[in-house]
Amino acid sequence: MSSLKLSGVRKSYGHVEVIKGVDLEIKSKEFVVFVGPSGCGKSTLLRMIAGLEHISAGDLEIGGTRMNDVDPSKRGIAMVFQSYALYPHMTVRENMGFALRFAGVAKDQIARQVQDAARILALEPLLDRLPKELSGGQRQRVAIGRAIVRNPEVFLFDEPLSNLDAELRVHMRIEIARLHKELQTTVIYVTHDQVEAMTLADTIVVLRDGVIEQVGRPLDLYDNPANQFVAGFIGSPKMNFLAASIVEKSAGSVTVALRNHSGVQFTVPASGGAVGEDVTLGVRAEHFGEPGAGAADIRLNVDVAEHLGSTSYVYANAGGESLIIEREESRNEMGQEHITVSISPERAFLFDSKGQRIR
Amino acid sequence: MAYARLDRREQLTGWAFIAPALVLLGLFMIYPIIWSLWMSFQVGKGMNLSFGGFANIERLTKDPVFLRALGNTFIFFIIQVPIMITLALLFAVALNDSTLRFRGLFRTAIFLPCVTSLIAYSTIFKSMFATDGVVNQALMALHIIGSPIGWFTDPFWAKVIVILAITWRWTGYNMIFYLAALQNVDRSIYEAARIDGVPAWARFTHITIPMLKPVILFTTVISTIGTLQLFDEVYNFTAGSGGPSDSTLTLSLYIYNLTFKFMPSFGYSATVSWVIVVLVGILSFLQFLVARDRRRT
Fold first, then answer.
1. How far is B248 from chain A (nearest CA, A)?
2. ipTM
3. CB A94 within 8 A of CB A100
4. Are the C-beta atoms of residues A50 and A75 closer than 8 Å to each other?
5. pLDDT tens digit string along A237-282?
6. Which CATH number fits domain B62-296: 3.40.50.300, 1.10.3720.10, 1.10.8.60, 3.30.530.20?
7. Is the pLDDT of residue B194 over 60?
8. Bridge partners of A317?
């Protein structure tokens, strides 16, 4: 099992730089998830680690060895693709054993390793089928099996669950988590789905525009986002952002006025900001309180309410600003046109005009 | 299979719609095919025909010119089709490489021959390979040969030129099918193979070729049919003679000569035509047999 180290890694296509200097250390046996919106460079970064894309600048080390110019097959990695990338004319057994044939492994040894991987993934009854005879979930298991057979130091997953339906996605997510526990290998997993990131990762790496925005444990990112981008990206439903401006500043706190709620202002502990500065107040859907329970109340027009049984999500707006509010019990609120909720400053975040967190 | 039963009126309307096409097809295709089968049992010269049973088939077995034409056609088929298919595959794989510069130019250049005029290219080939043509001059200038080769007077070289010409003309055509198929292949399959440590040659033999198998089969069958019907090039190069001394005579050219050049022998030429049909049938069947999936589908 190997650790990984990226130092000053960059990638450009012609004049366009897509990875703009990434420094990252991944510990052995760690499950790391690269997450970010599409086009943020997460897949490119993974493909650079795999050796499918050339590294324009910087160093990649796997297990302490510089791997920049090492052939993909000699990096001790295995990769699972979004499209599964199974060889369509080969059976499951042949797909899984194909790499070993070229690694000079003896036939009976190949058979044994394929059998072992098939057992781990419950693929034994499917070994003689062709990929086209399998369901999406089964194909993905074969793709994972093909990776396992090679006994890699590092597993790379490139959006492996994106082609599956919602139910199967949850199932395979659990399967992958179980597998990581069982195999104890280093895993790098790319996804744009922050739920996958939150549930699978030991460490989440949030990327935007080829730059790492924040690295941390899932709940650390949730509780302590470094900036407005991470705050908005991590967590479902998304964090609500309310436009505000600073009207007064004292040591360790500022008083903000909400732009779309005239007369609503309250004091928030803050480490920066200047009077008159436009700021953004971030409040998670579940952190709105009952009226009167916080520092200030806001009144909103209800657009839609989704009642899921145990919780409800109320989609509301005020002055063109849409908010999502999570309510625990809402049966007696059905059909309401307005809703009043309170904001507690100690549970809210404050971001300056550049998106940096000041609380 | 479930299909709704159409009522009578709808059925009639349907038939009415396809009737014009059906009549034309019947008149100009199905009727002549059946008639030619009937004709193949007729003997006699010109319009003076009479039923001869299997006389024509018997004549085939004793006709040295027919046997010669059959042999030539087979030589063209056995040598030319594999060379062309292999070349087309290699070109397609090379021109599918996204890092290759001027790909479009190369693709066009290789495809262009099959849309050029047959007469124009035959004439150019003829002049290039004339005794005082550019090929002989170039070879002599390079001191590869001492005296000019009579390309069209030597039985061996005449065959080579025919093979060269049809390969030049049709390789690009087949390449387009492979390119189309290759562009449908998920790129990550090759990436997976690279990570799996599969060497480049094995990616070609173990991944590309098996995945292109249906297209390879299709192009092989089409090329087989084309080669068995080979006529134009030979006719143009040899002024219709199939010379020198019948060394480039093909079945189709022989049929033409039997019908329009010699004393017309319609019955016998119909029999030779049916030989081509039977050969195409047998060869296509064999090719399907070879390419059959070794597993149930």
1. 41
2. 0.84
3. no
4. yes
5. 899 999 999 999 988 899 999 999 888 999 999 888 889 999 999 9
6. 1.10.3720.10
7. yes
8. A301, A322
